């Protein structure tokens, strides 16, 4: 029996770029870190110097407007697809991710992402996404008390 030359797993690690200035995003970051991960999740503040070093070709202004997940082979997931791939990485939520990726589940994923975006926009106010993290002010807040 021969050993395959290519790994059989489509992705070995996912980097989740999240808005460190958004309370909902930070809450979801902490939630993701508490889950049992089948695929390791590396969470990095969107627009940060670290994100720019890791992914120089990425549109970092866009990552501040919408959740973006980058696979270790260069895959880029945005919006609903990003949420689905995050759930797919989690042991308890992989079956739900498979369903959300189907034609029957995709509308639910889109509505959830749109609702989260509206809630986030209301929390942050107009123009909040125009800021940059290059100065290091988008540090990760600690988990809720």
- Gross morphology is globular
Report the sheet with the most strands, covering strand number, pairing sense and barrel closure: 4 strands, mixed
Count the DSSP helices: 6
Low-pLDDT stretches are 128-141
Helix content: 40-55%
Got a strand count? 4
Mean pLDDT figure? 82
Measured by DSSP, the beta-strand proportion falls in 5-15%
Across the major sheet, the strand order is 2-1-3-4
Report Rg.
Answer: 16 Å
Q: Calculate the terminal CA-CA distance, rounded to whole Å.
A: 53 Å
Order of helices and strands, N to C? EHEHHEEHHH
Supply the helix-strand structural class: alpha+beta
How would you describe this structure to a colleague?
This protein is an alpha+beta fold and 145 residues long. 41% of the residues lie in helices and 12% in strands. A 4-stranded mixed beta sheet has the order 2-1-3-4. The longest helix is centred in the last third of the chain and has 19 residues, at 106-124.
